[in-house]
Q: What sequence folds into this?
C-alpha cells in the first residue's frame, strides 16, 4: 500500500527516540529500567496505544503494549530489553549516556545493544496505530528488564507471572542477523535458534605467602596455564542442518579457494578448518561459533594485597552450547581441556 508519509521524516523520529533512550542510564546493575518504561509510556499514550508497566522489583520495570488485530492468528511480539551494560566515560568519543547525534551516527551505550531496537519497535507501533493498520494478529511490544544480568527480573518473571500478556506465536528480537560483503555480493545472516549457556568457574590453588618469595606452584601460574590450555582447545564440530545450509550458501558466494575450503569443511568439519576459512574475518568468527560449543574466560579473580601471593585464583568461563547439547557434558569436557591443576564448578 502507498505510504502517506516520508521515510526520511520517520528516520528523524527514530533518531530522536534513540537519542532520548540512550540518555536514560539503565546500566545493570542497578538497572533502573523504570526510566525507559515511563518514557515509552508517554510516547505510547500520545499514540493511543494500550500498555502496562510491570515491576518485578521497585524500579525493575517491564513494559507490555498491545495493538489488537483481527485475532485470526496468534500474536506477534516485538521483543527488546531496556537495560544496558555499564559504561564509564573513558575511551568514548562522546559521553556514553549523551545520546549525541554527530557524524551521521547516534552515539552512546545502548546505541546497538539495544536501545536502537527499542526505538525501532516504538516507531513501528506508532506507525501501525497512526495509519489504523489492523493485522490478522495482535502486535505486542514487550520491553524487559534485567537481560544483561540473566533476565530473572525480566523475561523469566514475565513468563512466570504474566504469561497471558506476553504469550505469542512469533517474536522479533535482537542479534538475528548481520550484513556481510562477499565476492558474490552481500549476504544477510538469519538466526534460526539460540545457543544455551553453561557457565562455570575454574579455580586453581597453591601455596600462599609473602610475594618476595616466588613460588612456581602458585595459584596464579596454575590458572594461567589452564587458560592457555583452553586457548589451544579445539572442541568437536557439530554440523546441524541449518549450519550445513549456511556453509553451502557461502560456498556459492566464494568462488575459487573460498569455495574449496568451505567444501572441505562440509566434508570434514573441525575447528582448524573453520578457523582458517578464507572469508571475511568477522563472518568467519560467526561460522566458528555456529559449529562449536564454546567457553570464553570473562572474569578473573585472585589476591587481596599486592605483596601477598594468593592461595586461590579463579576464572569465570562463559560457556555457550549449540541446540541439543548438554551443559553437564560440556562442563566435563572443558574441565578435561583445562587440566587437573584447576577445579571446575558451576557458579
A:
Amino acid at each position: 500500500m502507498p505510504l502517506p508519509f516520508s521515510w526520511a521524516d520517520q528516520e528523524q523520529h527514530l533518531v530522536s527516540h534513540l537519542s532520548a533512550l540512550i540518555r536514560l542510564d539503565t546500566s545493570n546493575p542497578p538497572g533502573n529500567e523504570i526510566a525507559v518504561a515511563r518514557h515509552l509510556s508517554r510516547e505510547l499514550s500520545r499514540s493511543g496505544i494500550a500498555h502496562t508497566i510491570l515491576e518485578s522489583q521497585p524500579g525493575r520495570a517491564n513494559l507490555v503494549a498491545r495493538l489488537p488485530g483481527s485475532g485470526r492468528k496468534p500474536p506477534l511480539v516485538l521483543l527488546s530489553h531496556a537495560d544496558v551494560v555499564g559504561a564509564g566515560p573513558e575511551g568514548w568519543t562522546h559521553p556514553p549516556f549523551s545520546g549525541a547525534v554527530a557524524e551521521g551516527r547516534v552515539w552512546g551505550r545502548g546505541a546497538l545493544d539495544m536501545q536502537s531496537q527499542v526505538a525501532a519497535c516504538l516507531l513501528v507501533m506508532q506507525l501501525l496505530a497512526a495509519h489504523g493498520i489492523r493485522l490478522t494478529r495482535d502486535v505486542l511490544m514487550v520491553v524487559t528488564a534485567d537481560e544483561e544480568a540473566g533476565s530473572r527480573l525480566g523475561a523469566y518473571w514475565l513468563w512466570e507471572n504474566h504469561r497471558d500478556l506476553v504469550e505469542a506465536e512469533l517474536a522479533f528480537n535482537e542479534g538475528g542477523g548481520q550484513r556481510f560483503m562477499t565476492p558474490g555480493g552481500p549476504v544477510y545472516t538469519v538466526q534460526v535458534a539460540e545457543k544455551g549457556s553453561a557457565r562455570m568457574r575454574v579455580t586453581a590453588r597453591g601455596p600462599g605467602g609473602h610475594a618476595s618469595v616466588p613460588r612456581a606452584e602458585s595459584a596464579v601460574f596454575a590458572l594461567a596455564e589452564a587458560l592457555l590450555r583452553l586457548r589451544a582447545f579445539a572442541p568437536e564440530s557439530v554440523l546441524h542442518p541449518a549450519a550445513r545450509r549456511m556453509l553451502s550458501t557461502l560456498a556459492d558466494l566464494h568462488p575459487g579457494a573460498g569455495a574449496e575450503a568451505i567444501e572441505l569443511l562440509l566434508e570434514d568439519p573441525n575447528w582448524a578448518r573453520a578457523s582458517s576459512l578464507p572469508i571475511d574475518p568477522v563472518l568467519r568468527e560467526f561460522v566458528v561459533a555456529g559449529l562449536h560449543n564454546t567457553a570464553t574466560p570473562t572474569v578473573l579473580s585472585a589476591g587481596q594485597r599486592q605483596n601477598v601471593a594468593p592461595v586461590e585464583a579463579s576464572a569465570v568461563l562463559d560457556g555457550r552450547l549449540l541446540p541439543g547439547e548438554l551443559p553437564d557434558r560440556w562442563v566435563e569436557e572443558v574441565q578435561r581441556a583445562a587440566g587437573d591443576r584447576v577445579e571446575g564448578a558451576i557458579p
